[in-house]
Amino acid sequence: MYREDFMRRAIDISREALEKPGTEPFGCVIVKDGAIVGEGLNHSLAHFDPTSHGEVEAIRDACRRLECVDLSGCELYTSCEPCAMCVATMEVAGISTLYYAASMGQAGVAFATLTRAERHPIDVEALRVAAGAPVEARAMPSQQAMDTEAVAILDSWVKARKAATAARG
Ligand SMILES: [Zn+2]
Question: Residues 24, 39, 55, 57: which is the catalytic one?
Fold first, then answer.
């Protein structure tokens, strides 16, 4: 269930970007059983990491703290509606519920006066379309190669995994 104190925390984290060089004003917290288990602020420029969005950072933080890769049952509070990369990360991690403050449209209005150089370098709509498209439908050129070798490793890994599971009984 939504709690204002958690959203307030996500927004407070986003506010840190006003003072911290190399960060952007996107803050996020992960909540499990009524307690914060992960926090994140966009550090893309500071960490030279284009994937360092608030949501991704908070998911990494929660998974490390909980020593798991499954955040099912967790809620995610973010200061701004997540981009497609973050939605995909949330799906991979199994996040159960999303609460967001600014919408994508509101963020677009806020960033509208920035020049191209100043602008957040993500075209969120292009990202959403590309992330949802099959490989042959994306604008990015893609080519398949050496699939036989790659698939052989997948098959070997599955065999070893099954053998290990069987050995454990
Ligand atoms: Zn994102």
Answer: 55
CA nearest to 54, candidates 89, 30, 26: 26
CA of residue 1 to ligand 1 center, whole Å: 23
Report the pLDDT value the prediction gives residue 122, as an integer from 0 to 100.
Answer: 81
Distance, in Å, from the CA atom of 3 to the CA atom of 35, rounded to the nearest integer, reads 11
pLDDT of 120 reads 64
State residue 45's pLDDT score: 92
Q: Distance from the CA of 124 to the center of ligand 1, in angstroms?
A: 9
Strand order, beta sheet including 24-32: 35-42, 24-32, 75-80, 97-102
Ligand 1 centroid to 83 CA: how many Å? 4
The pLDDT of residue 50 is 94
Alpha carbon distance 163, 124 (integer Å) = 43
10-residue mean pLDDT series, the chain (169 residues): 98 98 97 98 95 98 98 98 98 98 94 81 88 94 97 98 92
- 125 is an active site residue: no
- Cα–Cα distances in Å, from 63 out to 47, 70, 92, 132? 19, 7, 12, 25
What is the pTM for the complete model shown? 0.93
List phi, psi (to 5°) of 164. -65, -40
Ligand 1 mean position, distance from CA 82 (Å): 5
